Each structure stands twice: as structure tokens, then as C-alpha cells.
Amino acid sequence: MRLFIAIDLNGAMRREVGTVLSALRERACGGRFEPLENTHVTLRFLGESNDLAGAVAAMHEACRGIHPFTLRLGSYGCFLKGNGSRGSGRTSYLNVEGDLDELGILHETLESALYDRGFSRDQKHFVPHITLGRNVEHDELVGLELADIKPVAEMTVTELTLFESTRIKGRMVYTPLHRESF
Fold it and tell me: Rounded distance, CA 152 to CA 84, Å?
């Protein structure tokens, strides 16, 4: 099974993400855009694993001592991959703002709990964001226009979700397998 642990979005956040996602689709020259129902804040991509018990135990441990916290949508941005040329491997996203200290603690305790249960440690720097699309092609002016959109939505985070990612009829479907509240 292909697994990841994330913060699922509430309705208000998802609607605002949809506004920016629609603007991106209209202005971009191409790319693979996330279905709105798949948007989330990834805390840890686990990859192929059948260790559901280990992932659930790590989530339980990581949530101990965490208090509900608020996240809100930030501005548009993109990661460039490959050689950095225009449109080369651009991943478009919305920044996540709010109580990033509590989110950072949750992320670090989850990393440690997963490592203690035999999962490899993620070597990438954690950048809280919501992915809008991959291999998105647009020029700098479009990026500036999208950055001017100021989505107004926030949510109180009270749980983590373990998702299974499955390709069905050419589309990625994210199925919640477990929710861990705090």
C-alpha cells in the first residue's frame, strides 16, 4: 500500500484552495492539477508499506501532548525541480501559515515515532504547504498574479489522517485509513 500521513482540510479551507486552484488552471499553460478533494497538508509520505500498525502507533505517540492549533492559507508559490528552467518540474502550492511552532513539534514527534518503528527518516526539510499541481507551466507574470490572490480561510487542526493513495482509472484517490485526534 502507498501511504502518507497528513492534515485533512475542512470545507472552508478546501473551498478557498479551490478558488486559487481554478485561477491556476485558467492561467497555466499545462500541468497535472490536484483534484480539489485530494488537497491536504502532508506531514510524512511513507511510500510503499504494509505496516499499518506501526504507522498508527507512531501517529498515536506523536499526538500525545499536542494541543489543537490553527492553520490558515498563505500565498501562492512554487518549487522548481530539475535544471530550474522555466516550467521545468514546477510544483505549485499554497503556503500554510498559523501556529507553525505547534505544527513543527507535531512533525518532529511524528518523524521520531515513525523512525522508532522502523520507518526511514525523511531527509527533506519540512515546508508546510498544500500542493496544487505538478509540472505546472506558467511564466513569472502568472506567478505574480497568483501570489496577489489572498485566500482567507483558517481551520483548527485536531487530528492527523493516515491515507492510502491508489490509482483508479488514471486518477489518484486518497482513502482515509485512520484518524488520530489530539
Answer: 31
